[in-house]
Amino acid sequence: MLADEISFSSPPVCLSILLAEDNPASPTLLARMLEKLGHAVTTAATGRQALTCVVERRFDLVLMDVLMSDMDGVTTAVAVREKEKVLGGHIPIIAMSDSTAQIDRQRCLAAGMDRYTSKPRTAAELETILLAFSDPDAIQRATRPANWSRTEVMERAGGDENALTGLVDIFVKDESNLLAEMNRALITQHAELLQQATLKLGEELSYLGALELSQIARELAQLGKKRDFIKAGELALVLQSRLSEMDAVMTGAEP
């Protein structure tokens, strides 16, 4: 998937992370990705091990698999919050699950977890989650050259600078409305609206020569079709960050 290739600047701090995951292969893969991103990782193969780690050591964050054999993620999160009533403090817990059912998300949040996300499959997905946790503004500061072809759009404008400016102005206005519809669709979990808004956005981005961003918008439409609002929400953060960067370049008339 094209969005998997997107890279961000690393979070400004090294986080001490507890990774609770009982799939034998998954902890190793996720731990390696976390360490490559500059974080310190401790792994726990069971819910009970995770609870013991939280009591005995200080962590900045827990990545908690919802489905674990001895104590599932929900039960473990409840136990952690009960311990905190005695010990004090609050450790952020991010639930990881392949389920897109709203009821599963509600169960995790009701248990005291701070966020519910799909299991990251790539370093890019994982970094997006951590950036949103450790420094939400960092997503907006992601450094990646804006992907659009001014030359291509200028040709479509007949070489007329005023016409080019007009095309950019129209896009920026449409973009604002389409992003508002996209975000409303994500909040209300309106699959059809999400598909309509992102497909239209993808078409306009393609016309501007921003083919990579157009592909990301189309991937969002596919996630809407699958009703995978968790991954769609994470990918929407990436798209909006990249669009913000591209807008700054376009409106600044940089070549």
Description:
The structure is a single chain. With 255 residues, this protein is α/β, with parallel strands linked by helices. It has two domains: 2-140, Rossmann fold (3-Layer(aba) Sandwich), CATH 3.40.50.2300; 150-251, Four Helix Bundle (Hemerythrin (Met), subunit A). Helices cover 60% and strands 9% of the residues. The chain contains eleven helices and five strands, in the order E-H-E-H-E-H-E-H-E-H-H-H-H-H-H-H. It has helices at residues 25-36, 47-56, 73-87, 102-110, 123-134, 136-140, 150-156, 161-188, 191-207, 211-225, 229-251; strands at 16-20, 40-44, 61-65, 93-97, 115-118. It has a five-stranded parallel sheet with strand order 2-1-3-4-5, sandwiched between helices. Strand 3 (61-65), helix 3 (73-87) and strand 4 (93-97) form a beta-alpha-beta unit. Mean pLDDT is 79; it is low at 1-12 and 136-145.
Question: Main traits of this protein?
Answer:
255 residues; alpha/beta; Rossmann fold; Four Helix Bundle (Hemerythrin (Met), subunit A); 2 domains; five-stranded parallel sheet; 9% strand
In short:
With about 260 residues, this protein is of the alpha/beta class. It has 2 domains: about 1-140, Rossmann fold; about 150-250, Four Helix Bundle (Hemerythrin (Met), subunit A) (Up-down Bundle).
